[in-house]
Amino acid sequence: MILAAQSDMVSAAATGEQTPLDRDALVAALRAQAPNYHDRHPFHVLMNSGQLSQRQIQGWVANRFYYQKIIPIKDAAILSNCPHPEVRRRWIQRILDHDGEDEGRGGTEAWLRLAEAVGLGRQDVLDEHLVVPGVRFAADAYVTFARTRPWIEAVASSLTELFAPDLMSVRLAAFERYYTWVEPAGLAYFRARLTLAPRDAEHAIELVTRYCVTREQQERAVAALAFKCDVLWSILEATHHAYVEIESA
Ligand code: AHQ
Questions:
Q1: Containing domain of residue 189, as a range?
Q2: Ligand 1 atom 6: the closest Cα is on which residue?
Q3: How far apart are CA 198 and CA 19, in angstroms?
Q4: CATH code of the domain in which 232 resides
Q5: Which of 61, 68, 109, 172 is most buried, by CB atoms within 10 Å?
Q6: What is the total count of domains within the chain?
Q7: What's the whole-model pTM score?
């Protein structure tokens, strides 16, 4: 099914045929991006097999905070570009999920608690002195994408969350098994993603299948998801280079 959808898209592109994919074929073409997801990156392979040191975990937490911090900015960019109130009413929840309904609550705060749980100070993360250029560039590219591309393409780019729940489960099991020095309460962020990511992905799939009706719009949605896989991959490339390759050199 997935290969058929992909080869169907390739052959259509080659012949210039513009027949839109049906819903199942479009969803299959989006899911066909799974092999490009960052769960397969060597840094995650090392993490999920218990091979990272405390400093390497700290480096990842501090660098990933920069990505977490831009998520609500990215989602606000989508809101500002989206003309549909019924879409904005649901999408705004993502901002609240990260910013919290009040000071000291929400996902960004939970990530700061993860930082403390791995032995970093909040200021170590907030001041961004541990963030390496490649992480900053990749995360900023995601914000720029959301600000400058049609809102529905930015929605499609968030569909990496189709693949996130499995990774969260593997990550939680790895931390509980190998990184017992991490204060368990610090893992609350990932537990929350186990339900928030599927909820978000379901909404994004509903929007992409409703608003991407021409073949070109569908191909741009798949390309947007491929771009976001590159964003996440690049974040880990830069983190791996700084905290694994250079450290072990
Ligand atoms: O913690 C993550 C998160 O809040 C989001 C928002 C979403 C988006 O809008 O692009 N993507 C995302 C992701 C989060 N965590 C990543 C991880 O590996 O912990 C996975 C990432 C994603 O799959 O897109």
A1: 2-248
A2: 71
A3: 29
A4: 1.20.910.10
A5: 61
A6: 1
A7: 0.93
